[in-house]
Known about the structure:
Elements: E1 8-13, E2 16-21, H1 32-47, E3 53-58, E4 62-64, H2 75-78, H3 80-98, E5 104-108, E6 111-113, H4 115-122, E7 125-129, E8 133-135, H5 149-157, H6 159-168, E9 171-173, H7 174-179, E10 185-187, H8 189-203, H9 208-221, H10 226-240, H11 244-254, H12 263-266
Parallel strand pairs: 2-3, 3-5, 4-6, 5-7, 6-8, 7-10
Antiparallel strand pairs: 1-2, 8-9
Amino acid sequence: MTHEFKDATFTVADGIARFHMNRPDLLNALTDELRVDFSAMLDIVDADSSIRVLVLSGEGRAFSAGGNVKGMASREAASPAGFRDRVRTLHMWLKRLVDLRCPVIAKVDGLAFGGGFALALTADLVFASSAARFSAVFGRIGLIPDMALLYTLPRVVGRQRAKELMLTARSIDAKEAKALGIVLEVCEPEALDARVDSFAKGLTAGSTEAMALTKQLLNRAHDSDYDTMAELEANGQAMMVATDFHREAVRRFAAKETPLFNWDTMTNDD
């Protein structure tokens, strides 16, 4: 059955899937409908091996402002049991996003607050416009960070800086976010779309098997010891040498033919 996206749009072209949150009136807050849209999108991406990259973005002046605070005022949502169930439920699709086989790019233009900040950090790569701002805003309404921000943020910025950002709930601009390692690149707003499209297109030329396994192993790196990672490397490399991509890449190298994947060439401005 085809899913009818309600609070987002979803398109696929040339190996790139684009999931665009589309509730600018709510600053792309994570409504119930948007959560369903995320889950349905992941079903599609998981089932379509032609999708090589996923790009997340938001309509209007926010990537996402996170939780729908107005909705929290309802009796059911405001109860402890209601909050617990909602957080547990969102992790059912959020963990799938983290573990997605293909690279995920967050394109942040505007606010990425609370759950929106957390959502950006579930991506493998974050590109931001100079108008972007990030905040672990939860403390402003007496909540703790959720949507795995307690897991992802200290792994990006270190425990002490994560504590400072979470305890103060202050917002940071794109320049500071880049300095902290939260953002990979900062572009002017008018250049952001083209830069992300170019980067995503470049990634589509790589080995799907190698990229998927690289992601999987990197996601385990901070929680594993040296010996575990060394064994995973050995097992993974044994799998990769048997792939068609590797065999063809080696053949082309030996024959001095055009490489299957040459990032330096693909990113030349000329």
